[in-house]
Amino acid sequence: MLNITRFKNTVNYLDIAMRKRLALPITSWQLCLLAIIGGTISSLLIALFIGAINSIQQWLLADIGHYTSLTELNRLFLPIIGALAILLTAWLTGYQYIRTGIPFVLHRLKVAYGVIPLRNTINQFFGGIIALASGFSVGKEGPAVHLGAASSAYLGSRFNLPSNATRTLAASGVAAGIAACFNTPIAAVIFVMEVILREYKIHMFIPIMLAAIVGSMVTSTIFGPAHGYEFFSPVALDFEHYPWLILLGLMLGTLAAIFNRFIVAAIENAKHFHVVARLLIAGLITGSVGFIIPYAMGTDLGAMHFTMSDDASTALLLGLLVAKCGLTIVAVGMGIPGGVIGPIFSIGAIAGAVAAGMMGIAFEDKMTSDFALMGMAGFMAATLNAPLAALLAVVELSNQLEIIAPSMLVISTACLCAGQLFNNRSVFIMQLNVQELSYRTPPLENTLHNIGVLGIMRTNLALLNARDTEQEMQEKAMKSEYLIMQSNGEFYWNEVVYEPGKERRFRQHKLIPISSCATLAEAYLQLNEQRLGGVYIYDKSPDNIIGLLTFEQIRAYLTKGKI
């Protein structure tokens, strides 16, 4: 019995020691290993997600994404049937769990460190499969981000890790999801830093990078190394084309601002309708437009293939651009469970091809492929307010380093135009604002969110109770730095106060319980009003005290960086 007890104590000690290291804002091999495991689980789930979509489309269509193979009536009714199937899933899981996608992940990262309710994840998985298979103009990256964050954050909550480590795992899952979707690991890492976390922290880079590598490897192994964007021809842009690229950037910035505002307006107006009406309206509009313009259906590749074909005149592309923008706005605004980045790529490519056609008089060749690539980069950058992620995405998708300089010019012009002339912001932030989902925290709290209470808690303490004799109390006091008194189920900290010329005395503070998973932000919020005292850290049960954290320690961390 003694050996078993000693073994359990040793395991518990090692567990707390590991979690204490994970609570610190430093790169650790333990967190990297968990990010790899989480990235593997996330990417396998996303591979299952993509495989299900491809299987359904191959069963319904002549080829994946080719809705032109359907009859007009089938194109009309397919999205309506899809909307009904999404509603069935939502009804089975509860309509209150229908929020999904990247904006919801951003919200959960702020309010719950990336932990996502299971029913939301079920809605995202099955609803996303149905939406993408039935022709709605949404992207698979939205569900991938949601599924990746949910899978990796589950590891953190399952192993009772500090919340700051769980947040890093959720971000790593997002990177694995993006890399799994597009086979763009570098862009996935920058997307997480620029759009999801909206901050660059060195200790997060390594686990996020490892998860992105895993995500790319898993889907490349299952579906092959190609990412579906190999139809772009080698870039032939030169300095003489730069004035036209500036005009393209201005056009893309204007289009992005209009696009974002229409999405916000659609979400705002959709609030007045029940979810059943919203999804059926989206299905009816998608089917009606698809009846006339089948290339506007689906996520991205179908429209891009048509854009690159010889049959695509400027007038047809202009009509396709309007239809694609409209269907995407309707789908996102009405709450179809899918992403917006896939359609953004498509809209940007079509817009670039339209610009190439309009500027065709200036070139011997219309250079449709080059301008389509520039359009993807500029429109994504201006719509998401993520210039670096957009640049690296098109570089990885096209496998051409030569596009870096012209892409930077288009991206800079588009972002300046959208931001300065139209006060445009990231479409995700605009969605969060209109949906009244919190995503901001004060800068001080942001700093405190990066370290867990385990990281700076004091463990040299003694627990006193009424049954202790005077001698036992003195012995405990001599061996310990902090004294905690238990009385009537409450815990009190006897702070030793030294005053010049006087004997030491004790100041008693009632301690507030804080879970070992909490960050300094939660402890600070508990103590900020009185600005003194402390909290006691418990593991699993409030009676299992493992440490003490005082307000002075938090102040020292903020002002002097002391741990």
Number of helices: 23
Q: Quick one: overall form? A: elongated
Q: How many strands, which pairing sense, and closed or not: the largest β-sheet?
A: 4 strands, mixed
Across the major sheet, the strand order is 1-2-3-4
Average pLDDT level: 86
Give the quaternary arrangement of the chains. single chain
Distance between the termini: 38 Å
Order of helices and strands: HHHHHHHHHHHHHHHHHHHHEHEEEEHEEH
Say how many strands there are. 7
Structural class: alpha/beta
Rounded Rg: 28 Å
What does this 3D model show about the protein?
This protein is α/β, with parallel strands linked by helices and 563 residues long. Helix content is 65%, strand content 7%. The chain contains 23 helices and 7 strands. The strands form 2 sheets. Strands 1-2-3-4 form a 4-stranded mixed β-sheet, covered by helices on one side. It is elongated and about 95 Å long. The two termini are 38 Å apart.
Please provide a brief summary of the model:
This protein is an alpha/beta fold and 563 residues long. The chain has 23 helices and seven strands.
Write the layout of secondary structure elements.
Elements: H1 2-23, H2 29-60, H3 72-93, H4 101-112, H5 118-133, H6 141-158, H7 163-182, H8 185-196, H9 202-223, H10 242-270, H11 275-292, H12 301-308, H13 314-334, H14 341-358, H15 368-384, H16 387-398, H17 404-422, H18 427-434, H19 443-448, H20 453-456, E1 461-464, H21 470-479, E2 482-487, E3 490-497, E4 505-510, E5 512-515, H22 520-527, E6 534-538, E7 545-550, H23 551-560
Parallel strand pairs: 1-2, 5-6
Antiparallel strand pairs: 2-3, 3-4, 6-7
Helix pairs in contact: 2-5, 2-6, 2-7, 2-9, 3-5, 3-11, 4-6, 4-18, 5-6, 6-7, 7-8, 7-9, 8-9, 8-16, 10-13, 10-15, 10-17, 10-18, 11-13, 12-14, 13-14, 14-15, 15-16, 15-17, 16-17
